[in-house]
Amino acid sequence: MLKFWKKKPAETPPGQPAAPAADEAQAEGFAHDTDAASLDQGTSALDEALAEAPPHPEAPAEDEAFEQVAIAEAAAPAKRSWRERLSGSAFARGLSSLFVRHPKLDDDLLDELETTLITADVGIEASTSLVEDLRKRMHKREFADASALLTALRHALIALLKPVEQPLDVAGHKPFVVLTVGINGVGKTTTIGKLARRYRDEGRQVMLAAGDTFRAAAVEQLKTWGARNDVPVISQGQDADAASVIFDALQAARSRSAEVLIADTAGRLHTQGGLMDELGKIARVMKKIDTEAPHEVLMVIDGTTGQNAVSQVRQFRQIVGVTGLVVTKLDGTAKGGVVFALAREFGLPIRYVGLGETATDLRVFDAEAYVDGLLPASLGQG
Ligand SMILES: Nc1nc2c(ncn2[C@@H]2O[C@H](COP(=O)(O)OP(=O)(O)OP(=O)(O)O)[C@@H](O)[C@H]2O)c(=O)[nH]1
Ligand SMILES: [Mg+2]
After folding, report:
1. How far is CA 358 from CA 147, 183, 225, in A?
2. Which residue lies with its CA nearest to atom 7 of ligand 1?
3. How much distance in Å is there from the Cα of 21 to the middle of ligand 2?
4. Measured in Å, how far apart are the chain's first and last C-alpha atoms?
């Protein structure tokens, strides 16, 4: 069964704006005109569109006052500090023990620093170039002590990440369509759930598309996130055509004037040609409805996969035009350095990072907070 807009004023959580009457009326309409039967005919609707490719009328103008109030009142997600989440990483632990073991400023410290960065997944090129720059500056007597070197390292790391600190702005299109991609088990569905919560908390109307039709459990997992956050999920049965599900969802999102549509997809490897072709098909059918969709191809990367993450991005990028990254599981056993390797290699925006499994554990990527979490300024002062 499908879940539809369920928000009623009485159920509005504290701090959430109540949906205005007009939206309620639209919600009723949506619930009535998008039933399971009509979605079951999704493939024929898709075939029709592919045959005729009719341009869809523009969505009605949004209620700007509602949006502004909603954004202003959006509840700030619960925050535990980045440092708390990142301090267990091999990066943080390696660096802190290095400066304790080796408080003297000399070439040995830099050699060890290079090894520590490489071990923490920063990548050989990035690590070498960071350390060689610091070495030159040390030989020019720029640093008075190890603490000064640490400060310079922090600045260099922040400078490496600053260019990819580009938050995702979903305001430019309606609906703004996010297509999530990535290999198996990286955290795509969980990230979608967290994003749904985030955008809903910002007062946006969100819909999800259960485009992972590979496993029945995948649809259920997305529905659970939808139910938890009061966000409708468009799905069809298992083994349905993923492009058809996402096409229907985009149609529904337009007719409902939803602001954000996030599509889930099955995890896949670049070697699975058929599944990779499916991503191309999904993007093509979306364009039958909105020539600019998907507006974001969000690739999800597991932060614990090390340098393999770099080859994953390279491969997906060749097949679908990845426009942004999410790096997940940085709270766990991740070494923490892969974010630097990705930033240096691709320069692709890192939109969010996952610092835990719950709904509020997705943070907008913040270069300074990230470096501070790995490498507190206090480290070299002990
Ligand atoms: N610690 C931690 N766990 C995470 C994070 N993001 C996702 N996970 C966990 O990673 C596991 C896999 O997440 P899914 O969202 O199912 O991954 P997926 O990419 O959708 O997987 P497939 O659909 O099988 O390809 C789950 O146990 C999540 O709870 C994170 O930021 N931190
Ligand atoms: Mg999934």
Report:
1. 36, 21, 11
2. 187
3. 35
4. 59
The per-residue DSSP string of 59-86 comes to PPPP-HHHHHHHHHHPPPPP---HHHHH
As given in the structure block, the two tokens for residue 373 are 């979490």
Collapsed DSSP state (helix, strand, coil) of residue 366: coil
**Strand-pair partners of 180:** 298
Q: How far is the CA of 179 from the centre of ligand 2 (A)?
A: 13
**Which token pair is 112?**
């060890």
Q: In the 8-state DSSP scheme, what is residue 358?
A: S
Q: Whose CA is nearest to atom 13 of ligand 1?
A: 187
- Kindly compute the dihedral angle of the four CA atoms of residues 50, 239, 282, 47, in this order, to the nearest 10 degrees: 0
pTM of the predicted protein model: 0.81
Taking a C-beta distance cutoff of 8 angstroms, is the pair 62, 259 a contact?
A: yes
Rounded-to-integer distance, Cα 141 and Cα 152, Å: 13
> Cα-flanking dihedrals φ and ψ of residue 301, to 5°?
-120, 135
Q: Are 285 and 248 in contact (CB under 8 A)?
A: no
**What pLDDT digit, counting tens, does each position of 292-344 carry?**
999 999 999 999 998 899 999 999 998 889 999 999 999 988 899 999 999 99
Q: Which ligand is nearest to the CA of 225?
A: 1
Residue 182: closest CA among 311, 333, 288, 287: 311
Cis peptide before 232 (omega within 30 of 0): no
Q: Which atom of ligand 1 is nearest to the CA of 267?
A: 25
